[in-house]
């Protein structure tokens, strides 16, 4: 089944939830309190949409729900990349890799992880 596209706000919430592993709405809302000034009801609406789109699972804990992403962060990133770059990336990912290398400050650990990915793909 093809997943429905995510809005930028939904992507932000999914990224935050992936970093947390699982969380309730209040926890995620507090993460965005300074940056976005989102109210509880705003985050609730985003969570409801993500749940309806089947990006989240939830379980009842006491009087509230705790949500967990259906996908690992790496799979979620693949979905985001497909949305933004579509078929262009399939034919030539070099410009994207060059852009990331030129604009991101990579630690030695990051460079090693990238190198390991490239080496494992060439096997």
User: What profile does the largest beta sheet have?
Assistant: 2 strands, antiparallel
Order of helices and strands: HHHEEHHH
| CA(first)-CA(last) distance | 30 Å
Count of separate DSSP helical elements: 6
Q: What Rg, in angstroms, do the CA atoms define?
A: 17 Å
Global morphology: elongated
Low-pLDDT segments: none
**Secondary structure category:** mainly alpha
Give the proportion of residues in helices: 55-70%
β-strand amount? 5-15%
Q: What order do the strands of the largest sheet run in, or round the barrel if closed?
A: 1-2
Mean pLDDT: 85
Number of strands: 2
Supply database-style keywords.
mainly alpha; two-stranded antiparallel sheet; 123 residues; 62% helix; 10% strand
Describe this structure in words.
It is a single chain. The two termini are 30 Å apart. This protein has helices spanning 8-20, 25-31, 40-52, 73-91, 94-103, 108-121; strands at 56-61, 64-69. Strand 1 (56-61) and strand 2 (64-69) form a beta hairpin. The protein has 123 residues and is mainly alpha-helical. Helix content is 62%, strand content 10%. The protein has a two-stranded antiparallel sheet with strand order 1-2. It is built from six helices and two strands; from the N terminus they run αααββααα.
């Amino acid at each position: 089944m093809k997943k429905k596209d995510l809005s930028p706000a939904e992507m932000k919430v999914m990224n935050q939830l992936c970093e947390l592993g699982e969380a309730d709405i209040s926890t995620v809302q507090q993460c965005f309190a300074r940056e976005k000034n989102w109210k509880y009801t705003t985050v609730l609406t985003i969570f409801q949409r993500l749940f309806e789109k089947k990006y989240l699972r939830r379980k009842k804990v006491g009087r509230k729900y705790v949500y967990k992403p259906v996908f690992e962060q790496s799979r979620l990133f693949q979905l985001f990349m497909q949305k933004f770059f579509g078929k262009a990336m399939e034919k030539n990912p070099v410009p994207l890799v060059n852009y990331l290398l030129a604009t991101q400050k990579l630690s030695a650990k990051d460079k090693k992880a990238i190198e390991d990915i490239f080496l494992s793909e060439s096997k």
